[in-house]
Design brief:
Elements lengths: L1 E2 L8 E15 L2 E9 L4 E3 L2 E3 L6 H13 L1 E17 L2 E15 L9 E5 L1 H7 L3 H12 L5 E7 L20 H16 L2 E6 L3 H14 L4 E2 L5 H6 L1 H12 L4 E6 L3 H13 L13 E7 L2 E8 L7
Length: 306
């Protein structure tokens, strides 16, 4: 990946990477994983470069597993750091908070030691100031007690070229590919349940995920565009109910309902999430504390980085 700059100066090559503040709970307090890399003799947060065919979220989960031995579920996006590697090359690392689900550490070629520390201990241990900044942002973020993934249906061709009932309009070839690519991204965030507005294109978008999880898609009539416009409060209430269920839910909906619900929930919580318009196959990671939205992260595409 490279970016042009003005004035005819050399283009800057960007190396994308992803990582996380991997944590587990010790009572009410998180213990964060920091890793020692013998090659550099440093202490850092787990991270690594994007492999071909990966999205950033998938990279983060893979790197966590490779460096620490733990499976992880991504939660809120913390931010992106950048630093130079060499002349005209910069590395950009996107970080998430990530809950450790299970596993065990074994020393490997990249990491020979792992420590689980309080946030303050971790900040004193890591070698780099950028890692300390990431840990500070992790500590300052309000905790989410439940997480939901809200997904707009993938591409379904032109409505004007479809002569049948619009509720039955299916995904096109591009949309089917987007639906397949959503699977690893949504699984990186721990999706276990699948729900969808009763529109064929919405259900087909999440069908590959449901098949991989071995679950059925639960139909949600309150989450269509028409239902939202008729009763926004009922749509929001249903979304909050789904978030509160056991395990992370992936929920399929449409291009009017999704921006409306996210915007409404953000306004009620006093959050500034910016523009809530959502591209086809785009998704929102929504974190809740009870009925209150505490974060809303937008992922415009499940496609891998080029």
């Amino acid at each position: 990946m490279s970016r042009a700059v003005n004035g005819g100066r050399p283009r800057v090559r960007v190396v994308p990477a992803a990582g996380a503040v991997l944590y587990r709970m010790d009572g009410d307090a998180p213990r964060c994983a920091v890793v020692h890399r013998p090659r550099y003799d440093d202490w850092s947060l787990p991270k690594g470069k994007v492999d071909a065919g990966e999205s950033l979220a998938v990279t983060a989960v893979r790197e966590i597993a490779e460096e620490t031995g733990f499976t992880a579920v991504l939660q809120s996006r913390i931010g992106t750091t950048a630093y130079p590697l060499k002349e005209n090359t910069r590395k950009e690392v996107t970080y998430w908070s990530a809950l450790a689900r299970g596993g065990a550490f074994e020393a490997n070629s990249e990491v020979d030691e792992i420590r689980w520390l309080s946030v303050e201990e971790a900040k004193r241990t890591v070698t780099y100031a950028l890692d300390r900044k990431v840990l500070t942002r992790f500590a300052e973020a309000p905790p989410a007690r439940s997480v939901l993934l809200l997904v707009r249906h993938a591409k379904a061709g032109s409505r004007s070229e479809w002569s049948g009932n619009d509720a039955l309009r299916p995904l096109d070839k591009t949309g089917r590919a987007q639906a397949e690519m959503l699977v690893p991204m949504l699984r990186a965030f721990g999706a276990r349940r699948v729900h969808s507005a009763p529109r064929v294109r919405c259900e087909q978008t999440l069908a590959p995920l449901a098949e991989e999880l071995g679950v059925t898609i639960a139909v949600e009539p309150a989450l269509t565009d028409e239902a939202y416009l008729d009763d926004p409060a009922a749509a929001r209430a249903r979304l909050i109910d789904l978030a509160a269920g056991k395990g992370v839910a992936a929920v399929g909906s449409q291009g009017t309902a999704i921006p409306g619900m996210v915007g409404d929930l953000a306004d009620l919580a006093g959050l500034d999430v910016g523009d809530t318009s959502t591209k086809k196959a785009g998704a929102w990671g929504l974190g809740f504390d009870g009925e209150t939205l505490v974060y809303a992260d937008y992922y415009p595409s499940p496609l891998p980085l080029r």
